[in-house]
Design a protein that fits this description.
Structural class: mainly beta
Number of strands: 4
Strand content: 15-25%
Number of helices: 2
Order of helices and strands: EHEEHE
């Protein structure tokens, strides 16, 4: 099991002041403690990771596409219908939804997405999965 950087940070000091050497005591009756464990902490932003460590954080991936996609609500009909994640409502004459983030796009889609830029070299990008969402 790989420990993800940022998750599983130091726990608060135990109530016994650490007298048990950091081991958690089970129930007094000797049964197995079935309480679910929690993953806590803050994952670092993907952009802060070197490329060779990008895979260590779930949600991060090597990408050449950077930037911030223009919000669907700010798009006209032509921009809206050509954007993954956005939907044009002809009755309301407006665009809604959430565009795919730039680091999640392939090279061709990146060049077509308003707000995204295709870089010459790969960097670590994406959105890290919050520690609370990990098992």
């Amino acid at each position: 099991m790989t420990k993800l950087a940022g998750c599983g940070g130091k726990s608060p000091r135990p109530a016994d002041g650490g007298a048990d050497g950091g081991l958690e005591a089970g129930p007094i009756d000797g049964s197995v403690d079935a309480r679910p464990r929690e993953c806590t902490g803050i994952s670092p932003p993907c952009s802060s990771l070197p490329l060779d460590r990008c895979h260590e954080i779930r949600g991060c991936r090597p990408t050449r596409c950077r930037g911030y996609a223009l919000a669907c609500e700010r798009r006209n009909e032509a921009e809206c219908t050509g954007t993954t994640g956005c939907t044009w409502d002809p009755a309301a004459r407006r665009c809604s939804g959430t565009p795919v983030p730039c680091p999640g796009l392939g090279e061709e889609a990146c060049m077509e997405q308003t707000g995204c830029v295709l870089r010459a070299t790969e960097e670590c990008g994406g959105d890290p999965t919050p520690c609370e969402a990990l098992s």
